[in-house]
Amino acid sequence: MKSEVLQKLARYCAYQERCVWEIQVKMGSFAILPEDQATYLDWLEDNNYLNQERFAKLFVRSKFNQKSWGRNKIKFELKRLQVKDPLIQKALEELKELPYDARLESMLIEKFNQVKDPNEWSKKQKCYQYALRKGFEPDLISLYIQQLN
């Protein structure tokens, strides 16, 4: 293992939480052979620079708090980052501690008031599509859409 590469990877991980996939992409840019990558990953994990569970939990909280993403979109993005399913399920439990339903409700009310359409059904449809794109569950969206006036 090269110490300058280790130092760069450690700095990369210390700057913000990273997942294994991001580290592998970074190692590819350093032209590290795939058979050597495991050694670097092990060192980063042993020295607490890299922790998949910590990354997944932080990802869930930050995407919900900053971007108002729902479970479906967060789960999709974690899968795109090649986080394993058991870790995704464990990380999604973080949403139980957050005001998930209240965020959806306030988001729908705000969107409903923004939409300029005289047809109430059309307004509700646009709100429904908006919440779907944000990654919220269809049955939960329907529950709150019915309450809009």
Automatic annotation (TrEMBL):
Keyword match Magnesium? no
Please tell me whether the keyword Transferase is annotated for this protein. no
Keyword annotations for this protein, in alphabetical order, are: Cytoplasm
Instruction: Tell me the InterPro entries matching this sequence.
Output: RecX_HTH_2nd, RecX_HTH_3rd, Regulatory_RecX, WH-like_DNA-bd_sf
Residue span of the signal peptide, if any? Answer: none
**In this protein, which residues make up the domain named RecX third three-helical?**
103-142
- Boundaries of every RecX second three-helical domain copy: 52-92
What residue ranges are annotated as transmembrane? Answer: none
Principal cellular location given in the protein's record: cytoplasm
Which protein family is named in the record? Belongs to the RecX family.
| PANTHER family per record | REGULATORY PROTEIN RECX FAMILY PROTEIN
Query: What is the protein's name according to its record?
Result: Regulatory protein RecX
- The organism is Aquirufa ecclesiirivi
